[in-house]
Each structure stands twice: as C-alpha cells, then as structure tokens.
Amino acid sequence: MVIRVRGWALPHGEHVDLYADGDRWTTDPVPGVAPVAEGWLVPGLVDAHTHPGAEAPGEALDDELLRAHLRQHVRAGVAVIRSPGLAGEPPPWFGTDPDVPRAWHAGPWLVQHGQFFDGWGRRVEHAELPAVAAAQAARTGWAKVVADWGVDDAPVPADVLTAVVEAVRAVGGRLAVHTQHAAGGAAAVVAGVDSVEHGMCLDPDLLHDMAARGTALTPTLSAITSTLATVVDKPEGPRKRWYVDGATAHAPLTAAAAEAGVLVLAGTDSAPHGRVADEVLALAAAGVHPHTALAAASWAARAYLGLPGLEPGAPADAAVYAEDPRTDLRALSHPEAVILRGRLVHRS
Ligand SMILES: [Zn+2]
After folding, report:
1. Same domain, 204 and 333
2. Fewest Cβ atoms closer than 10 Å to its Cβ: which of 2, 140, 198, 345?
3. Distance, CA 24 to ligand 1 centroid (Å)?
4. How confident is the model over 220-248, as pLDDT tens digits?
5. Which residue range or ranges hold the Amidohydrolase-related domain (predicted)?
6. Are residues 155 and 248 in the same domain?
7. pLDDT tens for residues 42-81?
8. What is the count of structural domains for the chain?
C-alpha cells in the first residue's frame, strides 16, 4: 500500500510531497493516493538512550514488556531507538517488526567488578575489555562500557578505554561510555569514545575536545533532573553532594556542550517509555536552541546513526504535526500521524 505525506519538511522547512511504497520515500507521484497527513514533517524521532524490556534495574529482559515499551515509543513519534545496554539478548523481531522502532543496541553493559546494578551487565577484567567490547560491536555495531559508578569507585583508566576504542573501531563498531564523575568523563574524552552517556560532572573545559573529535553527548537531562528531585531529601554525605552538585550543573553543561559544537543526542534513560519529547523540552529549558533541541531527537540523531531524513531514497519514517513543533516543543508529544517503514502506525 502506497502512503503519502505532504507539508513542510524539517530541518529546512521546504515544501515536500512524499510517497512511500514500502520503506523508501520518493517524490514520484502515485495517481489517486491522498495524503494520510499534512502539516509539519519531522523525520521519525529518535530516543538515543533507552533500555526497553525491563521495569526495574536488575530484572531480566521480558519480551512482552519489550514490545509494550517499544509501542509506547512509536506512539510518541519515535521511529528509531539506540539502547546502550539491554537487560538481555533481544528477540529477533527487535528493531525489525513493522510495529516497533528501528533499533541499535550494545548488548549487555560492560562493567567493572563490584560496580553497576546487581543482575545487569557483564563484569569484565580490564585486560579482557577491548576484546569483549569488540566482539559485541562486531555483532551489533555498538558496545557500551560503564566507566564509573559509585563515589569511591575507581573509573576505567583512560589507557584501557583507548584500547577499547581501538578494538571496537577495528571491527567497524562504535563505543558508548557511561560516565557520571569528572575522572571517568575525562578518561572517556581522552580516549575519544563515540558517545559520552550522561556526562554528569564532566569538566566543561573538555567540551571543545569532544567537539573536535566528534564525540557525541547524550546528557539524559530529564532523567538526571528528575532523580535530583528525589536525592535532595536524602541524608547529607559525599554521595548526595556528588549527585546534587553534578545534577545541578548538568543543564548549563548541556547548553555549553551544544554551544561548543558537541553533537547532543536526546535520550530518556527512563520509564515511562515514549517520553523523548520531555528530553527535548529539558534541552530547550537548559538553553539549547529549540531547533538544535529538536535535531537532537530527530534529524541530527538519525544522521549520527547513518539514517537520512525526509528525502528521496531515505527510510520512510516521519512524524507529522499541525504546527511547526519548534514554535512550541510541547506539541512534540502529540503527532497527528506517525509513519514507520512506510506504514501509518499511529494517528491522533
Ligand atoms: Zn542508561
């Protein structure tokens, strides 16, 4: 079945009239096909940091829950997810079934002994980390290393991360690294990883290095800010001080990253799923320009993952809005229509 959408295509706002017969946009008209939606067209949204398929840390991957989470993403206009860490091996339909987003994933989190959530991730010795990460990246394109965890935990050293980057690149893969402490963040930037996840407590002086090396930042700002609201009631101590200071500085850090030319990606890291619009709002509230905040959840994130936008030959994803969503980013939560792989999968 041929589908047609018409309207103003972001990022540039030119008027387009697009058809898809299957999973590719074309401008070749098909007689007798009326548009399923008209308005402002955004290439399908991207949640670049989400862990669907488990409700709480440590729980096993549940296929039914996974599909439910992915459908929540689709209803919110999300056509693409990146999962930097999953609770288990995803089923074959993950990322491919018609009703679920395209997906990139990094398999289990690769973590140091004595760190991270019990029951999640794979504990790996430093000496084994490059080979284990490369094997994962060879399978799924990405590996994810948790470079730091608790306040008193030693981070993965920069030379180890550098060796991991080299091993992962050697198989054509990319490396995402979790950091929430200054030392771990510095090690990740020095190593030249592909994406820094969270980046809380990152030294702002390193942002220019990140921009120069093409290291992306997925600040998961709305998740960190909402956790901050619960941490302020906790007893005083080093752990609380770390979180309050880091989370409080995180919005200005994120805005400074965008200003410095770092590619910022929108990632929610959180339940409920399908709330990437909240992350875009958080980015804008932090001072990221609305156009850039939207790019972080759509065309810029798609380009980062190798997917073109609303152009002939591109994968046929789109979210359609009645108004230009940049003028009121709250509208992002309510697409008029969602097209995924050339199919209308949701209509408001
Ligand atoms: Zn995460």
Report:
1. no
2. 2
3. 31
4. 999 999 999 999 899 999 999 999 999 99
5. 41-345
6. yes
7. 999 999 999 999 999 999 999 999 999 999 999 999 999 9
8. 2
In sign, the C-alpha dihedral spanning 8, 10, 13, 17 is negative
- pLDDT tens digits, 82-103: 999 999 999 999 999 999 999 9
Closest CA to 164 of 153, 173, 151, 155: 173
- Report CA(50)–ligand 1 centroid distance (Å): 6
Give the distance (Å) from ligand 1 centre to CA of residue 218. Answer: 10
Q: Are strands 337-340 and 343-347 parallel, antiparallel or unpaired?
A: antiparallel
Rounded to the nearest whole angstrom, what is the distance from the C-alpha of residue 84 to the centroid of ligand 1?
7
Q: What separation in Å is there between the alpha carbon of 197 and the centre of ligand 1?
A: 8
Burial 158-195 (b: 16+ CB within 10 A, else e): bebbbbbbebbeeeebbbbbbbbbbbbbbbbbbbbbbb
Note down the domain range covering 330. Answer: 2-41+311-347
**CATH no. for residue 58?**
3.20.20.140
- Tell whether 33 and 162 lie within a shared domain: no
Q: How many angstroms is it from 48 CA to the middle of ligand 1?
A: 10
176 and 323 co-located in one domain: no
Ligand 1 centroid, distance to 51 Cα (angstroms): 6
270: pLDDT strictly greater than 90:
no
Co-location of 298 and 320 in the same domain: no
